[in-house]
Amino acid sequence: MRRPLLLLLVLWGARGQPPPKPNFVLIVADDLGIGDPGCYGNETLRTPNIDRLASEGVKLTQHLAAAPLCTPSRAAFMTGRYPVRSGMASPTRVGVFLFSASSGGLPSTEVTFARLLKDQGYATALIGKWHLGTHCHNTSDFCHHPSSHGFDYFHGLPVTNLRDCKPGAGSVFTQAIRLLALAPLQVLAVALATLAALRWLGLLQVPLAVFLALALAAAALLAGLLCFLHFFRPLNCFLMRDRAVSQQPLSYDNLTQRLAADATSFVRRNAERPFLLVFSSIQVHTALYASQDFAGKSKHGAYGDAAEEMDWGVGQILDVLDELQLANRTLVYFTSDQGAHVEEVTAKGERHGGSNGIFKGGKGNNWEGGIRVPGLLRWPGVLPAGREIGEPTSNMDLFPTVVKLAGAQLPQDRIIDGRDLMPLLRGQTQRSEHEFLFHYCNLYLNAIRWHPPNSTSVWKAFLFTPKFEPPGANGCFPTHVCFCHGHFVTRHQPPLLFDVARDPRERRPLGPGSEPRFWEILGAMQGAAARHAPAAGQPPSQLAPGHVLWKPWLQMCCPGAPRLACRCPRG
Fold this sequence. Notes:
Layout (H helix, E strand, L loop, with lengths): L1 H14 L7 E7 L18 H9 L1 E3 L2 E2 L5 H10 L3 H4 L26 H7 L3 E7 L23 E5 L16 H28 L6 H29 L2 E3 L2 E4 L7 H15 L5 E6 L20 H23 L6 E7 L31 H4 L3 E4 L8 E3 L3 E2 L3 H8 L16 H4 L10 E6 L2 E7 L8 E8 L22 E11 L18 H19 L8 H4 L23
Parallel strand pairs: 1-8, 1-9, 2-11, 3-12, 4-5, 4-8
Antiparallel strand pairs: 2-10, 5-6, 6-7, 9-10, 13-14, 14-15, 15-16
């Protein structure tokens, strides 16, 4: 009699307990194109682990990055808000942070999902790339660091992976070096030679002080250039563990394996409590790298090797969830921060950027190839396996989705642009909550997307488009990325209109002759933009020149290393 009674009491007590909070594993690839994974149509790149998420979960086919560049897109992902609302949009050509010793970053007033989940008792970690700033005023404030935005643990790159970080991989600053250093050096050299010839011929009496001033200016320029080339890598390409520099400059040797092992270790340490893991892959941004197990093994050169190794890292995390029997309690999300960087081609002609499939454009612009990204969500027993959804969704949607599932409250003092995905994912609704979406190119509203109620159309109106160079190309190759204003763009009056539901390649712009409701559609979209603009607001830009430039007093180095030496190779 006692045993049945005891069992009833246990069952009654369990019935009164709230269900355990779900875990979250949010995986963000870097510069991966929607045409790269097998589940989105690639037949030659091997991505079995990413494909597994699609077969075991929900695949979004119109999943959109809130910006076509790393820094603003990641800010939107973390906060559920358009980057302009947080000041994470640039007024200049430079749309991302390039230096570790910059003062800009995600403001402390912004609320990330990590901060809200930490308040709910979650263990939180970000492993991999951050790219949202580190310091404000000095090297001890860490005002923009992941630890100031809700992450208990951080191991990875505070900025980003660049060609300059890998010896022999080239430089992203080639054009700037030519413009700011090599061209002035040539001018100074010609001036010196001309004045010397005129003096020798007796045609012009040139004081020696003029020669000395020109020579000193040339020497200063040359010295500055050499210092930049010598010191950039150790000063900007390093790994951190929490708030300390752990390896400087970073080594690519088994880097993916090291970060994946740390991610699985975090899961193991926190298997008995709810956790949030953001695995922000360093691949497949250039400089490309792959360990010995993957180098030379793919059908797509260095890019394919890196992509397949990144997929292996995803598999390591999925395997540990299975091993610890956590899969049914864990929502896994996979995406890319924006489309593939189509302009990444080496001097030898090897393509180092990925594939955006059928879509036009790529990283840095708001053609579909720049913003349409993989969107995979798996939660066995909660989300149906194998479902495909073509409704417009955004990487901003993860914020309200994760926050609500964790039992936290959405902030009431600000606009949240993301929408809870769960009703759509579970089939409780067939329509996205996004009637309008706004596509920004840096600080500038670039395009408007409208999915009208009771309509299958998805209208997209461009206010301006980038000028692809050379003519006929699918990108801005001379500048390495498309810029957002001035003579780099073509403005459209009336706006350039497409129905991307019927014309996903954006090949056939519509006009009054081909679309009878042309002016009505544009009117509705322009009205939405007018209502959106005052609400969006424009706080001071964290990517303004004063925040982006290198500041020596903010430079981080290995503990105990002399300033500018900055070397701890074994971290």
